[in-house]
Amino acid sequence: MITQVRPVGRDxxxxxxxxxxxLTPPGWTEAGxxxxxxxxxxxxxxxxxxxxxGKPLELIVRDTAADPDRAVAxxxxxxxxxVAALAGEYHSVVARAAAGRADALGLPFLCxxxxxxxxxxxxxxHVARLPPAQSRGWRxxxxxxxxxxxxxxxxxxQPSLYWxxxxxxxxxxxxxxxxxxxxxDLSTLDPxxxxxxxxxxxxxxxxxxxxxxxxxxxxxxxxxxxxxxxHVLIGAPAGxxxxxxxxxxxxxxxxxxxxxxxxxxxxxxLGARVEPALRERLAEAPSFVAFEGYDAVVVLAELLRxxxxxxxxxxxxxxxxxxxGTRGQIRFSRAPGISVWQWTWAPIQVVDRDPAEPxxxxxxxxx
Length: 367
Hints:
The chain contains eleven helices and 15 strands. By secondary structure, it is an alpha/beta fold. It starts with 14 loop residues before the first strand and ends with a strand. A hairpin with a 2-residue loop joins strand 11 and strand 12.
């Protein structure tokens, strides 16, 4: 089914962009909802300001459900429907599959939220990305752990290219500083067994590299209730504590869990204007993912206004585009080791929920 934000123009035409988001399980649906809310708000504002080249901007949404094959099929369908470009996707492994197919089809794709360094197999002109590469954010997170005195780190991980990549980044960054990483395989260990391993390995921090709400919620509860582990820091670098469902499920147990998010310490004028509109649309505080969705559409709108809807011309224009986003001025360049056009760089924070007031976030580190 095609989801449209605005009706087509009077002459029966519109400028179409495709949107990919996880809107049903096993996808992280809350992230998908925030991502889509940001996109829809930006589309509405683009159209209120006159659209693209005199035509309304139309958003065609496809649910990936965190399934790479489903995302590839969606990219092919959207390409056949004549979209000028694609935006979105939260899950890194899914975004990688979508980016590869978009590249093969010559379809411009702006990845709003996924961070895998190797978003495509090789260099491409068709794909650009807003969030920082995983290596950049997770190294900052590792520095936070080191500064807090943690050298023996355990990771409770599910099988995934994304989690494996994160584990490798952490290990490589911690090792020169005397740190080490113990891997706990969640395909074989239940929460009780994870607690036993933490105690045996004498780890001082446990990072949750797994899906939300399960098994993450059960792991947090088990560790919090194990008297042997009162000294263990729980961390969630992928950002699970950002969302309201985390606080609703865990309450006080979910506080004091540092995570990564991609926001500046203070929003600029555009971000300050957009924030209340996002809050109204979502009926809750917008996450950084909602701002990513908004910024993705802002960038594509600027790209299409300046260079038209021809896909080849659009793909060539990434390095010539500059747009005001909610989190800063956005421009793209080639970053070492990154195969796509990259915003260098979105702001990064290490944040947690304040144990004294779990509804409030504390900024622990910026980069």
